[in-house]
Specification:
Elements (H helix, E strand, L loop, with lengths): L4 H4 L12 E5 L4 H12 L3 E6 L2 H13 L4 E5 L5 H15 L4 E4 L14 H29 L2 E6 L12 H21 L4 E8 L5 H6 L16 H11 L8 H12 L10 E4 L3 H4 L4
Parallel strand pairs: 1-2, 1-4, 2-3, 4-5, 5-6, 6-7
Length: 281
């Protein structure tokens, strides 16, 4: 059973991020929503960014209903000019921007031999270009205010190779490399740059995006019956359960807090040990 945000608030001091402003791309659903909810519960004003107003508006309504501060903005992270405009708007409205969470992503299974140029371009632009555009846009704001945190979501599949995911694995490998490069380059500006590589987290969006073609030979784990999913968690994940958005949100909160003051350029695998135990199909 997934833990709720209220279950996890006791892990951190409730005012841990009081007075801070966090921008979460793709923050209205799935892992992004879990991150938005927890950062808001810890006192930050969370700006939820998403291409689809229905996603970010619903997320903000839910966060505000719990008594926390949040606002929303429509944003396509592939649009360089729009990204910079949104960051400037957030900084002007709130007077600061302390945390950027690069969570927007677009992934799906597709055979590499027939992957269309548009499919390749779409995923790489969202996952890698978007991460760079957003990071670059917040740099001058964070530098001027004396520092900040940039936290990106990666994945573990490119650590071993994963069929039908060439676009996503290439983009996320780029995110890892970008994280390390920016961490070194921007350390003098007191900007910490880290990434989190989530393991299998069966949100509704993941079920839809990662359902492989029926004739691909790749196990359709996320669309399987609940009993089959539970069995995979018991046997394929050393810690014996699926991940939840809150598992990733906890790591984001840790890195956003003073506990992360001497951490930069790191990619944290949060997957219950799954990538070490499960070979590629």
């Amino acid at each position: 059973m997934s833990a709720s945000v209220s279950d996890l608030r006791s892990v951190f001091r409730e005012d841990l991020l009081k007075g801070q402003v966090a921008l979460v791309t793709g923050g209205g659903t799935g892992i992004g929503l879990g991150i938005s909810e927890l950062l808001a519960a810890l006192g930050a004003h969370v700006v939820v960014a998403s291409r689809r107003p229905a996603h970010h508006e619903a997320a903000v309504s839910a966060i505000r209903a719990r008594g926390h501060a949040a606002s929303s903005v429509a944003l396509d992270v592939r649009d360089h000019a729009a990204v910079h405009a949104v960051v400037q708007e957030v900084a002007a409205t709130h007077g600061r921007l302390d945390v950027l969470v690069n969570n927007a992503a677009g992934n799906f299974y597709a055979p590499s031999a027939t992957l269309s140029p548009n499919a390749w371009k779409s995923v790489v632009e969202i996952d890698l270009y978007g991460t760079f555009y957003c990071s670059q846009a917040v740099h001058p704001v964070m530098k001027q205010q004396g520092g900040g945190r940039i936290i990106s979501t990666s994945m573990t599949l490119h650590y071993r190779g994963w069929p039908l995911m060439a676009h996503a694995t290439a983009a996320k490998a780029g995110v890892d490399a970008l994280t390390r490069t920016l961490a070194v380059e921007w350390a003098p500006d007191r900007i910490r740059v880290n990434a989190i590589a989530p393991g299998p987290i069966p949100t509704e969006g993941v079920r839809k995006a990662f359902a492989p073609p029926a004739d691909s030979g790749v196990p359709d784990l996320f669309a399987a019956a609940e009993e089959r999913m539970a069995e995979y968690a018991r046997t394929g994940i050393p810690l014996g359960r699926w991940g939840t958005p809150q598992d990733i949100a906890n790591m984001v909160a840790f890195l956003a807090s003073p506990a992360g003051d001497w951490i930069t350029g790191a990619i944290f695998v949060v997957d219950g040990g799954e990538w070490l135990a499960k070979p590629a199909p």
